[in-house]
């Protein structure tokens, strides 16, 4: 009879311990990742870091083919930002589009890539900053800057963690 009570007490103790651990983590601002959610959490961390890195390059001159650290073209900025955040991306906007997981616009999050489409395919890329704005290196004669998305001919891609 005593053996029956012991496992249930142990089970209750484990449950209380798990609850306390989760509450402690929440109180100190830690992230609790559910089983199977590690990839999304890692992707969010990398994307957030990449967004911050791109923003830190505000004012850097545009130069076609440049990949940083002081001059950038559009895909050079995204490649540089993600590489510094710990994730390799290919060189061109089209290659980056092909490498990311495509997501619908309503699911976009800060740090996702925004791809601009034309007749020839993907011609431009930036990093989504929220509020329908992107960080990007627009064109010759301009600088890395935060700007509103100016067209509906875009799609969104998430860089896997």
Automatic annotation (TrEMBL):
Signal sequence interval, chain numbering: 1-26
NlpC/P60 domain span: 44-161
Keyword Hydrolase: yes
SUPFAM superfamilies: Cysteine proteinases
Lineage top rank: taxon: Bacteria
InterPro entries reported for this sequence: NLP_P60_dom (IPR000064), Papain-like_cys_pep_sf (IPR038765), PG_Endopeptidase_C40 (IPR051794)
Molecular function terms, GO-annotated: cysteine-type peptidase activity
Pfam families: NLPC_P60
Keywords: Hydrolase, Protease, Signal, Thiol protease
PROSITE patterns: NLPC_P60 (PS51935)
Keyword RNA-binding: no
Biological process terms in GO annotation: proteolysis
Similarity comment: family membership: Belongs to the peptidase C40 family.
PANTHER family: NLP_P60 DOMAIN-CONTAINING PROTEIN-RELATED, PEPTIDOGLYCAN DL-ENDOPEPTIDASE CWLO
Protein name: Glycoside hydrolase
Originating organism: Streptomyces cinnamoneus (Streptoverticillium cinnamoneum)
Top-level taxonomy: Bacteria, Bacillati, Actinomycetota, Actinomycetes, Kitasatosporales
């Amino acid at each position: 009879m005593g053996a029956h009570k012991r496992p249930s007490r142990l089970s209750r103790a484990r449950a209380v311990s798990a609850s306390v651990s989760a509450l402690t983590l929440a109180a100190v601002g830690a992230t609790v990742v559910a089983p199977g959610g590690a990839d999304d959490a890692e992707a969010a961390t990398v994307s957030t870091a990449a967004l911050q890195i791109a923003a830190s390059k505000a004012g850097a001159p545009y130069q076609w083919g440049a990949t940083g650290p002081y001059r950038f073209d559009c895909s050079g900025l995204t490649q540089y930002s993600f590489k510094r955040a710990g994730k390799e991306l290919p060189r061109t906007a089209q290659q980056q589009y092909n490498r990311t997981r495509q997501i619908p616009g309503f699911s976009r999050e800060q740090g996702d890539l925004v791809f601009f489409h034309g007749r020839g395919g993907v011609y431009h890329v930036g990093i989504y900053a929220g509020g329908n704005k992107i960080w990007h290196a627009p064109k010759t004669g301009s600088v890395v800057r935060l700007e509103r998305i100016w067209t509906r001919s875009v799609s969104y891609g998430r860089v896997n963690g």
